[in-house]
Amino acid sequence: MINIKKILVPVDFSASSDLALKYAASFAMEFGAQIHLVHVIQEEVLHPGNLEDPLHTAARWEKDASFRLNAFIPAQYQTLAITKSVRGGIVFEGIIQEACEQEADLIIIGAHGESGIVNAWLGGTAYEVARKAPCPVLTVKPTEHGFVKP
Asked: For 17-57, what is each residue's pLDDT tens digit?
């Protein structure tokens, strides 16, 4: 029997992330699961070496990402149990850490690239997450056949 209680959806605000959220919403409705959205700000962007941040740029980026994450959720999903977080770090490592901390049962992540060949995104975030995640990972592509319909 499939028992899904927590679904992690990494969000980069792309069309693939939007589709991943649609899949997560469908799973959440079917299994009564909670959705946890996470946006990871690339570490080099968030903390560029040992430089000071007198303009508090990192804090502004985190605040902006939190605002965008709230706005990312369509009105029809407002009744679902959705939590959100923003963190800094290497993107795939941040996603995996979040999956561990949230005790996710499933990660649904958008896959980039036009072909269905693994080599097209070898080394990409979705590939690294799929290889190293502590739970099953469903990758979705907006240009391919899917099983969740609008």
From this structure: 999 999 999 999 999 999 999 999 886 554 555 556 555 56
Q: What is the pTM of this model?
A: 0.84
The 10s digit of each residue's pLDDT in 71-87 is 999 999 989 999 999 99
In a domain? residue 25 = yes
74: CATH = 3.40.50.620
Average pLDDT, the chain: 84
Check: CB of residue 86 under 8 Å from CB of residue 69: yes
Number of domains in the chain: 1
Buried b (16+ CB within 10 A) or exposed e, 3-17: ebebbbbbbeeeebb
Phi, psi at residue 4, to the nearest 5°? -115, 115
**Domain span at residue 22?**
6-140
- Determine, yes or no, domain membership for 147: no
Tell me which residue of 65, 70, 27 sits closest to 45, measured CA to CA. Answer: 65
* CA dihedral of 112, 87, 35, 118, whole degrees rounded to 10: 20
